[in-house]
Specification:
Number of helices of chain B: 16
Number of strands of chain A: 14
Helix content of chain B: 55-70%
Radius of gyration of chain B: 26 Å
Order of helices and strands of chain A: EEEHEEHEHHHHEHEHEEHHEEEE
Shape of chain A: globular
Largest sheet of chain B: none
Helix content of chain A: 25-40%
Oligomer: heterodimer
Structural class of chain B: mainly alpha
Shape of chain B: elongated
Largest interface: A-B, 50 and 36 residues
Chain lengths: 329, 347
């Protein structure tokens, strides 16, 4: 068996807002093995980013609060160690890249300074060593004439190049895990493809594990080994990527896949969409959170929230209904 | 990984060409695009250019005071007196005793080889021209000292409040609110009156009083700017790469948040000088005869009923003060427009 890097159990994160407590993440459990790429998909506000931010304790507190759970990285629980220890994990062992490269770099600091920061901080390199390493890193992520461009400021870089810089920063200390929080969402399609390609290439070279958060099912198919689908703060289906696309077992996953436009379809047809809206997260649901929008809904869905259970080889789903037969499992 | 250092994915020739697309000067490099836009925006309207010209003239007068009005006696800040009689003398009246050296510009410009009271004398034969020229130094001194001190206090309190939040924020901001409710000029007057017997007659009592009651605006501005910068992605990104808290505040948050405060501060010099003049008109501050615009104006207090004859004792120092404050206000007006996000793209 491969090495288990990250083992998250029963993670719960709340936000205290003036309108009440928002239950953003409701008991999420997942694992990540060495060399594996986990895709987390779901629509906006379903808790994808908060889940991963919670693992690094980067959720703004207050108003955020991690109420329960564990996030074991190797043999340490990231949610229990001291502030100083978690700071040493961030960047050094777990790197993170963010959605919007335009706003994720400090506008008043040169690219060089920002790149060398984690190197000096975590690896204890001297200014000069860190500089050389930065040039190397920029080369790795495909920025030409790296040594000239270190003294440039972020606004002198294009969006795609900034995302490359963000990747270089996240990789600076050779982390075991790279968390990519919708890194291609803010980029246009050609740059998206380049960035995905770059990450795949780097994964092969460096052998790191990746958690790729996205709502783009196409991107996930091309990069992930395993996919977890989130809805309303729960993981509702988890499966190896091929299995998920071939046989989605949760009505929500089915809906998501159906709502993708298909290039080979000839007849003109309205694009499928799931009826209704995702629920607000002010109350802990005692029913299945997807029940109001679910075409397969049965009596039991309204009284009991299904938890994730295995339905086949490494395929888990949280649904009372076997959608192939339309009957309760 | 080191073998494959330069193997960018995709076709990067386009990238290479795109780089030289826009040349960015060192000035813009240093300031960053937002701040650069603010600075260049300042020089685009006639009003702000008039303002800058006025300010520059005053700076030159302050620097070259010894050339414009050669000092008489040991202390150049003491306005030279031509006798002791009470009645003010009109502009152009001859200088009898205590005559200063004649500077090189005087003869070619006036065609006169005797020094006269260019702008007249005030009560007690204090030369108004000297008071105005050397008073420019007093104005900049008090303005700069008060502004630097108030900004420091405001920035420290505001950033501590914003960064730590919770009860610390509440405590500091409530104290700020209380200070805000106090009428500024009255409190400064009372406090400097209390300080004068302790510190003696000098610039110190009004300066300390103005600092004590003048920092609140900066605390509020920097606090709100930090609160918004704190939520920016790059701060989260810095945290995610393990940067320490103190460093995040000083290298990531403050440099991005402080610019509007600094701009406000520079422009407050006009207001500070006006308040200082008001205090010294009322008799607070330096000993009598010190070169200071408010003081020169205060010499007019006894003659205010017969201004038909003695207009110059009010008009010259008053006009000086007006032009000085106007210079800063003109620049300040444009500054407000440039800083206003709703005006973006219009200037």
């Amino acid at each position: 068996m491969t090495n288990r890097l990250l083992d998250v159990k029963g993670l719960e994160t709340h936000f205290n807002t003036p309108e009440g407590i928002v239950h953003a993440v409701n008991g999420v459990s997942f694992t990540l093995d060495e060399g594996e790429t986990l895709g987390i998909v779901g629509e906006s506000g379903c808790g994808k980013s908060v889940t991963m931010l919670s693992c690094l304790r980067l959720v703004p507190m207050p108003p955020g609060k991690i109420v329960a759970g564990q996030a074991n990285y190797k043999d340490r629980d990231l949610l229990a160690i001291s502030e100083d220890e978690i700071r040493k994990v961030r960047g050094a062992h777990i790197g993170m890249i963010f959605q919007d490269p335009m706003t994720s770099l400090n506008p008043v600091m040169t690219i060089g300074k920002q790149l060398t920061e984690p190197l000096i901080l975590h690896l204890g390199l001297t200014e000069k060593q860190a500089r050389n390493r930065s040039i190397e890193l920029l080369g790795i992520v495909g920025i030409p004439r790296a040594s000239d461009r270190l003294k440039d400021y972020p606004h002198q870089y294009s969006g795609g190049m900034r995302q490359r810089v963000m990747i270089a920063m996240a990789l600076a200390c050779m982390p075991d895990i790279l968390i990519a929080d919708e890194p291609t969402t803010a980029l246009d399609v050609t740059i998206q493809a380049q960035i995905v390609e770059l990450v795949i290439q780097l994964r092969e070279e460096l052998g790191m594990s990746i958690v790729w958060i996205t709502h783009d099912l196409g991107v996930v198919a091309s990069i992930a080994n395993r996919v977890a689908v989130m809805y309303a703060g729960f993981i509702i289906e988890e499966a190896p990527v091929k299995k998920l696309y071939a046989g989605p077992s949760h009505p929500y996953t089915v809906g998501l896949l159906n709502s993708l436009p298909q290039i080979q379809v000839q007849e003109k047809k309205r694009l499928y969409s799931i009826n209704g809206m995702p629920p607000t997260l002010y109350k802990i649901p005692h029913a299945c959170p997807f029940a109001p929008r679910c075409p397969w809904v049965i009596e039991r869905c309204w009284s009991e929230n299904p938890l994730l259970f295995p339905i086949g080889d490494s395929h888990k789903v949280a649904c009372w209904v076997d959608i192939k037969t339309g009957r309760e499992r | 990984m080191t073998e494959k250092t330069t193997n960018p994915t995709g076709d990067n020739r386009l990238l290479e060409e795109a780089q030289s697309d826009r040349k960015i000067g060192w000035f813009e490099q240093v300031l960053g695009p937002d701040n650069y836009r603010i600075v260049t925006g300042l020089f685009k309207t006639p009003a702000s250019i008039i303002g800058f010209v006025l300010i520059i003239i005053f700076i030159l007068v302050a620097i070259f005071a010894p050339v414009i009005a050669p000092p008489v006696g040991n202390d150049p800040m003491k306005i030279p007196r031509d006798g002791f009689s009470g009645e003010p003398q009109p502009p152009g009246s001859p200088w009898n005793s205590n005559v200063p050296e004649i500077p090189f510009w005087y003869k070619p410009l006036t065609g006169n080889d005797k020094w006269v009271h260019l702008l007249g004398t005030a009560q007690g034969q204090y030369d108004i021209f000297y008071g105005i020229v050397w008073g420019a130094r007093t104005a900049f001194e008090t303005g700069i000292v008060v502004v630097i001190a108030t900004v420091l206090i405001g920035v420290i309190l505001g950033s501590v409040a914003a960064y730590y939040g919770g009860w610390i924020d509440n405590l500091i901001m409530r104290i700020t609110d209380i200070f805000m409710t106090l009428p500024y000029i009255m409190m400064a007057l009372i406090f400097s009156s209390i300080l004068t017997p302790i510190l003696g007659r000098s610039l110190l009592p009004p300066i300390i009083a103005m600092i004590t009651f003048g920092w609140m605006g900066y605390a509020r501005v920097i606090r709100s700017d930090i609160l918004s910068i704190k939520e920016r992605d790059f701060v989260l990104a810095a945290k995610a790469s393990g940067v320490k808290n103190g460093r995040i505040l000083t290298k990531y948050i403050l440099p991005n948040a402080i610019f509007p405060t600094l701009v406000l501060a520079t422009l407050a010099i006009g207001d500070v000088v006006l308040s200082f003049a008001a205090l010294s008109f009322l008799g607070i501050g330096t000993e009598i005869g010190y070169a200071d615009w408010g003081q020169v104006l205060s010499f007019a207090r006894n003659w205010i009923t017969s201004l038909d004859r003695y207009w110059y004792i009010v008009v010259y120092p008053g006009l000086t003060l007006t032009l000085f404050v106007m210079g800063w206000n003109l620049v300040g007006d444009v500054m407000r427009d440039v800083l206003d996000p709703r005006m973006r793209g219009k200037i």
